[in-house]
Amino acid sequence: MSKAVLFHETGGPEVLRVEDVELPEPGPGELRIRVEAFGLNRAEGMLRSGTYVYRCALPARLGYEAAGVVEAVGPSVAGFAVGDPVSTVSGFAMGRYGVYGTHANVPAAAVLHRAPDVDAVTGAAAWVAHTTAYGALVEGGGMRPGDHVVIAAATGSVGLAAIQQANRLGAIPIATTRTKAKRAALEEEGAAHVIVTDEEDLAEEVAAITGGRGAELVLDPVGGPFTPRAALAVAPGGTLIVYGAQSGEPTPLPPNWPLTVTTYTNDRFLADPGRFRRARHFIDAGLRDGAFLPRVDRVYEGLEHTVEAHRRMESNAHVGKLVVRVSS
């Protein structure tokens, strides 16, 4: 028997329950890991509340991102052994494979070796954010040195990862936040410019920063009415990348031209072995030299604090990643 965080109905954080579960032996292509820590992602809150892009059979598990140790190796799995420290990334159905728990079976294709000097909290906080930023901006957007890159809602873990990656490649990160309370934090994290969207006009500020040209790339996790505003900040021929729906409202197609509007999902990106290989090498290099050290807003000790962690995620008060360390 192991323990897992389950929900039997959709709703707010209070629907999450820690329960005893019987975990079968890992099947073909699967690993069982002993979870040491897991990170929270917006997708998990949306799945729990019934607003995600798919629904799952109930009761269901939650969680994409964890760090732990391999406990069992399923048939046809190569390259992993019992005792290996690992991290998981998105690329599987959470309702079936969710990692919120003391143990989890996961597809081996969504598991990465974790260097011995990378602790569990870092291992549970880095990979989903950095693969999302890399896939959207580098592989999808072709981010280059000198590009101005607008990163909306930048105090989330993906936004902070995008700032780090833009700086790594010599691009110019322009971070947005709704209120000035988080301006200093974004400057500390390396944003070249910060725009407070409740007080400043996004397109006008970007035009002033870029000499009237606009940004080559705009990364939008908000969607809804924000997207047409974000499109006004794109340079002619630039790209708007919509990868989230934090607003919860329908996202209209921007009418201005010429620009490219594209969407991004991490699951599809990680399903491409070549792109996943390039992402691993890029992010590993940044983790080794400290350029991609994730900012962790708060670490909660024990599964019983998962509800509290979800409440903080929904409050939007955090800057960076929320992590639950699983008690041994």
Layout: helices, strands, pairs:
Blueprint: E1 2-7, E2 16-21, E3 30-39, H1 42-49, E4 60-61, E5 65-73, E6 85-88, H2 94-97, E7 103-107, E8 111-113, H3 120-123, H4 127-140, E9 148-151, H5 157-168, E10 172-177, H6 183-188, E11 193-196, H7 202-209, E12 215-220, H8 226-231, E13 234-242, E14 260-263, H9 266-270, H10 273-289, E15 296-301, H11 306-315, E16 321-325
Parallel strand pairs: 9-10, 9-12, 10-11, 12-13, 13-14, 15-16
Antiparallel strand pairs: 1-2, 1-4, 3-5, 3-7, 3-16, 5-6, 6-8
Helix pairs in contact: 4-5, 4-10
Describe the structure.
Helix 6 (183-188) links the parallel strand 10 (172-177) and strand 11 (193-196). The protein folds into 2 domains: 2-126 and 294-325, Medium-chain alcohol dehydrogenases, catalytic domain (Quinone Oxidoreductase, Chain A, domain 1); 130-268, Rossmann fold (3-Layer(aba) Sandwich), CATH 3.40.50.720. The chain is built from 11 helices and 16 strands. Strands 3, 5, 6, 7, 8, 15 and 16 form a 7-stranded mixed sheet that branches. By secondary structure, the protein is α/β, with parallel strands linked by helices. The protein has helices spanning 42-49, 94-97, 120-123, 127-140, 157-168, 183-188, 202-209, 226-231, 266-270, 273-289, 306-315, and strands at residues 2-7, 16-21, 30-39, 60-61, 65-73, 85-88, 103-107, 111-113, 148-151, 172-177, 193-196, 215-220, 234-242, 260-263, 296-301, 321-325. Helices cover 29% and strands 27% of the residues. The longest helix is centred in the C-terminal third of the chain and has 17 residues, at 273-289. This is Zinc-dependent alcohol dehydrogenase family protein. Residues 11-324 form the Enoyl reductase (ER) domain.
